[in-house]
Amino acid sequence: MDLSGEYYLLRLTKNGFILYKFHMYAFRILLILLLLQVSAFANQIYIIKKGDSLIKISHKFNIKSYLIKQANPKVDWLKIKPNEKIIIPINGNKVFYTVEKGDSLIKIAKKLGYTYSELKKANPGVDWLKIKPKDKIALPDKTITAYVKAPLQTEEQILHNEEQKQIQKVQAKEKLTKTQTPRKVASEQFYTIKPGDSLIKIAKKLNYTYGQLKKANPNIDWLKIRPGQRIRLPSKHMQVKRTPNPGEVGDGYYIVARGDTLRSIANRFGLALERLRELNPKLGNIIKPGDLVVIPKDLTEKIILSRKQNLFIPPKYLVYSQVYKVKSGDTLWKIAKKFNTSVGIIRTINDITGRNIRIGQVLFVPSLNLKESEKLKLRYSILNEERHALIKYAERFIGAPYKFGGNSLRHGIDCSGFVQKIYSKFNVKLPRTAEEQYRIAGVPISVKRLQPGDLLFFHTMNYARVTHVAIYIGKGRFIHAAGRRSGVKVSRFDRYYWKRFVGAKRILGVDTRYAYIRGGSG
Question: Quick check: pTM over 0.70?
Answer without folding.
Answer: no
